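User: Study the fold:
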Amino acid sequence: MARYFVEVLGGWQDTRAVITFGTPFYGSVKAIGSLLDGPRKLPGFARTRLRNLARTFPSVHQLVPVYRCVLGAGDSPVKPNEAELPGWRSSWNDHAVDFFATMEEAADKNRSATAWGDGQVTYYPIVGMDQPTPQSVRVQDGSTESFWDLEGRGLTGDGTVPGISAYLDGTEDARVFTPQLHSRLQAEGAMLHHVRGLLGSLDQPSPKDLRSAAPVWFSYRGEDVYLTDDRVTVELSAESHFSESQLPVVEATVVLHNRSTGQTPVRRTVTVARQRQTLDLGTLPAGTYEMHVSGDERTVPLSDVLVVAEVPDEQKSG
């Protein structure tokens, strides 16, 4: 929406910088699954209702990727609006493609205006990295299957937005990276310091990749929603500029904090290897939880938000 305001609504005349946190400029593969399947962890009626609700929101349609990410019978992926997906509606394509095209056309027109000047508005994208993120999707037998690669290239992102979508073409040199999940990008301490610095010195050159500020970070994979009869399991690995022989494992503390009750049902010290490992956190009561993973002073902390939902009545009766 910030880009729409700046480019389409004339906001560029009063704007010097646009700072974005994992903004899906070119869409998110997860939007395809939301429209076709709904939340995969919720069964039956609840899943169908949330899927149908998502289908009524043009803002969800506008999150559909505008690049080639749908795998079909051919060798190369195609754009979602060209994929002829089962149950797909043409209005979703219109909302996604037209929304993007409107901003692109307005941006080109703005930059040709005399008043634009030299670098009238600068985009500063904050990009999540090293988190497993759906990069492509295949629809088969009425359901979607996500893949962690695109055309054979293993790519990452912030768990929700692929890294290749989280910045505009031409803003590569302004990117700043952090090994954080999408829901917590705006709460990452290093990124907040970065934003404060940008706001205080917009005329200075953009900082480079902040990974060099700390040599160790975490890579995390987990669900957004669990049920109360599920065991909450996540996958965790350590990443570093050091080689695996120099740093084979990292000692970490994993904390789950219940926002509603203020209780901390999980606080565990774990040894995190360089290879991805499964961490079983047990079953939890319904609620919204903050997960925090931290190490020593060399390590970038990681956090996420997850929800534990009551088992639907229809599943209980089954």
